[in-house]
Design a protein that fits this description.
alpha/beta, 3-stranded antiparallel sheet, 13 helices, 13 strands
Amino acid sequence: AAAMVSGPDLLLLDEPTAQLDPASEENFMNLLERLHREMGITILMAEHTLERMLGMADFLIVIKKGRIIAFGAVEDCLLHGGMKEGEIGLPVWLPLYLKSEKKRPVPLTFMEAKEWLEGLEDKEILRRESALPKKSPMAAKQEKKPQIAMEAKDVWFEYPEHSGPVLRGMDICLLSGEVLGIVGGNGSGKTTLLKLIAGIAKPDEGKIKVKISEVAFLPQDVEMLFLKDSVAEVLGGGKDAMKAWIGGEKEGEALADRHPYDLSGGEKQLLALSLLLRSSADKKILLLDEPTRGLDLQWKRRLANLIASLQSEGKTILLVTHDLEFAEAVTDRIALLFHGEIVECEDTEEFIKRGYFYTTARERLLK
């Protein structure tokens, strides 16, 4: 809204949907389409996730390592742009289509993809295609009585400036050794829940049973963690500081002397994750608030593998996310937080299959 006050002819958007829940993202994209169609505004948008954007775009620009590797009409870029599978976050159906068809018209919208799938004999092939690694079964599920790492009972919380409670008698438990995902609309109380578990705030009513000394917290606003003037100093300084970089020392050296605030959004996220892992080796519970924010597909893969590795080491992880594809890849259970209450909590596979808004594009196509 603020960007539109001056009545611009050109609107520049940098990952505008990164922190929006699925329903809000759909409303936002519909608004952009109206601004373009009814007001003639030119829109240039940078995005990692293209599922909703390709159908409304006239042109596509693909950048790799500072160079444009594809530029032109969307179909031309997809068919002849030389993009390698897995380099960018294409809609789930496109890699399969481009492998098998490679002809026009390319299905760019959800409905076009659904029509194309109707003509396939084996629709389940889409379920077997995945851009992210498959989740392995949780060892804790095989235990008769898994231990509880954190339990919240009848938790109420209200910020002084709010007109009502953010959390309303909320109950949830986190099993030792599991990865639990929390999803829900913007403002539903997800970040507030993590702050209460981390001990940053206290419930007005109810109880949270957890050992605060065993908890490490990655906040949504990662810049609050950067108290030094260079990446290397944030990671402890000294000649071995960049060994803590999540992508490896060699990859991190190029960023060592840069100020944390000069990094891209994704690089800031990686720095915060690196700092968290460096400083929380003795922590048993990791709280991650939108850890994939600003990350491209390749880094989401690496993060998914890292979370799997941490879980195999015995870490218990609670993550808040709007990225249902990522949640499907890394979590054992998913809980839906609505209006301050947990209204659903199920095994990930069942949650994804039953969901409508809170599901993956793959499942919506197969319904």
